[in-house]
């Protein structure tokens, strides 16, 4: 297969000319600059494009080297890099060979840094930070000093086992938030991240021929099925009241109550700025969630919990010591569960419990997805057209039911849905 499937020449490569370049079928396309000989853009069938430089060495060998991915630098910045290389080539240098030699000696830690730098503009900051944290906690300590080309399938399998058995678990040296934990979930996420890194090394850097993660047996993660029954929610409510009387963290108790009444994810709630809450519209306007920016309807009981939370000017759930938002939820929740004699309960269990109550009340998966902020394929389009009032009624009904169980009272009942809303939403 020739890689000269499609070639376009322009006087000078610009942002607009790059935007107009499209690959044909399974073959890459090339855009060449006639003003600066050898400077071009290669567009892969996947849609990934890179600025490149084609030249001949002093002994007549043709080379083609990538300068930078399109989008990480401007066309003019790439042009300056190409000019610098051409100056060195005129003096007898072979930058592509030098780059290849350097990559052959690249360590896993260096690969991670290159991988993160290449994708920083393409992923959400929270995703990028999560990958950075896992690499620092697990990948670099275990195999960071190994040469990329020397890593074997066994090395990856041993790393996965070490993480799963907690060998990389330790107390964080900086910041707040307790321990860096291992376990099956962490091992599975780190292995998936490492696979992407090695694919980057194989396809983009071209320093290995195969991905050593490909044949590693993946860890199967069982779904989180634990949820609180109405009776257990009552026990939790009693534990919260008793803990409040004994001076348990008021911020932590408020956070637990809100998570159960809203179905929010743990960090959606804890890292929530006050400015995101829109009380008149009865919603939270999230600047960022697992699925991006989002407006989430809130039931009246959940909004009352927010009003009662000991907020400061910035955070709904502020840190009780120092700056920033509250991070001590796992400890507070653990003490509450011990008091209530409930086991297997995490912050995610509270979210799952909200969904479980909604399902028990007869709401469809479509409506529950809207209440939880899920964005599964094919569902967004189906519920995006639903009236806000329909989801608000559903949120009211579910949060009111949970509040009644928490407080041990039969109160807060919501009137039956109007026929119009029932027909439209449910």
Q: Span between N and C termini?
A: 54 Å
> Class by helix and strand content?
alpha+beta
Strand order of the largest sheet: 1-2-3-4-5
Residue stretches low in confidence (pLDDT < 50, at least 5 long) are: 173-179, 376-387, 410-426
What does the largest sheet look like?
A: 5 strands, mixed
Query: How many helix segments?
Result: 17
The CATH level-2 architecture of the largest domain is identified as Orthogonal Bundle
Give short descriptive properties of this protein.
single chain, disordered C terminus, 17 helices, 3-stranded antiparallel sheet, Double Stranded RNA Binding Domain, hpI Integrase, Chain A, alpha+beta, DNA polymerase, domain 1, 11% strand, 48% helix, 5-stranded mixed sheet, 426 residues, 3 domains, elongated
Describe this structure in words.
The protein has 426 residues and is of the alpha+beta class. It has three domains: 6-102, Double Stranded RNA Binding Domain (2-Layer Sandwich); 108-204, DNA polymerase, domain 1 (Orthogonal Bundle); 230-425, Intergrase catalytic core (hpI Integrase, Chain A). It has 17 helices and ten strands. It has helices spanning 15-19, 75-90, 95-104, 108-119, 125-143, 153-164, 184-204, 230-245, 250-262, 266-270, 300-308, 329-340, 347-360, 365-372, 380-383, 388-407, 419-425, and strands at 6-10, 29-33, 39-43, 49-56, 62-69, 170-171, 179-180, 277-278, 283-286, 294-297. The protein has a five-stranded mixed beta sheet with strand order 1-2-3-4-5. Strands 8-9-10 form a three-stranded antiparallel beta sheet. A two-stranded antiparallel ribbon has the order 6-7. The longest helix is centred in the middle third of the chain and has 21 residues, at 184-204. The radius of gyration is 27 Å and the shape is elongated. The two termini are 54 Å apart. The model is unreliable at 173-179, 376-387 and 410-426 (pLDDT under 50).
